[in-house]
Amino acid sequence: MKLYIISAWSILDPVYYTFTRLQYLKQTEKKKTIFRVRLTRYKGREVVLSDGTIIKKNDTLVKIHLHNVQLLKELYNINNDIKRAVVVYKKIKESLPYLASYVEQHKKKEQIKGIIGITMLNRGSERLGFESFSITSRLYIWFKQLALFPIFLISSSNPARQKNKSPNYLFMSTKSLLGKYGKV
């Protein structure tokens, strides 16, 4: 059943990509990044990151989206949730230098305050440099849970045993991103 869902998703994904203004990061042939990105204006509550960066309403951020179809295809034959988590962690870590390069080369680099993602997969994110913040709007939490639920179902080896997690914002300031993953 999961294979059919992934196949259908693979067909629908290019349509989704077209309507969301997402962009692929520049990459080498050997390394495929797991991110698709777009610039966005932040609409949430004010957030202060550990390096002192203040993210306010209407600040420019790079919104990161995991390329779910690509990721699910890679995870399909892995039956252990811990091994799956390790694969996702490694894929994200390998993609972050490409994200740093995207920000470094962007024409609006000076305006970009940081990066943002919304996910239910936030365990271990702090080791990558992300900071997790709860979403305060109950309506937005409900909407994101609904949107992320299919991914949750087909990415878990045993979804019935998993707790339904709340989605969180993941932030990283541009300063932290470039300091940790940018060109040396």
Automatic annotation (TrEMBL):
InterPro entries: YkoP-like_dom
Pfam family for this entry, one: YkoP
Domain called YkoP-like: residue spans: 3-181
Record-given protein name: YkoP-like domain-containing protein
Species of provenance: Metabacillus arenae
Taxonomic placement: Bacteria, Bacillati, Bacillota, Bacilli, Bacillales
